[in-house]
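Researcher: Please translate sequence to structure tokens.
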Amino acid sequence: MSLKSAVYRPMTPTNNIIIQRNCDIKAYAIHRKKVDNALPLVDNKPSQRHNHMHTRLKKRQMEEERQAVIQKDNQILLENMAHIMSTKGRLDNRNEYKQKSLNVITRQRELIRIMHENRAILKRIHHAEASHDRMQLEARWKVITERSATISKSAPAATPHKQKPLPSSAKRSDLHVNPSVPKVKDSDLTATQELSLPSI
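Model: Translation complete:
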């Protein structure tokens, strides 16, 4: 029952209801104040935060050093670019490097050796004696030519070859004739004999 109701009925018997009501109101206010100011018996707060565990000083130091190096490089690059923009620059686009070989001395020695060998071979070829006598070969050819001419002049004239006639008593029917061989006429035999004569 509310303490501000029109008819107040205290929990305990009292002689004066108004005084009892004021005392109850005051006691209730004190009670509410104690409840509001009461501390918990169980510690449910988070653990204490340690700065050295959340703030990495070494990492921060390394990052600051890295940023300092980057800032220095950028400053140098900016100064170089400003110098290039304000002047003509110092661009070196000439390449005067001469190509060199590591074994040039060895190749030169090999070339000199080959040249000496070629000269020696050429000298031997120029001073070499012929294995055949030119005068002897010409004399022998002359003798062979003379003998050939002499033989061709003194050779007898060639006579035509005469074939012996067959006996009159022999008949064609007596000869063994192969049926697979075609018959040959007399005129063909005569022409064949004339073609088989040797020509001189």
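Researcher: Any highlights?
Model: Residues 57-86 form the longest helix (30 residues).
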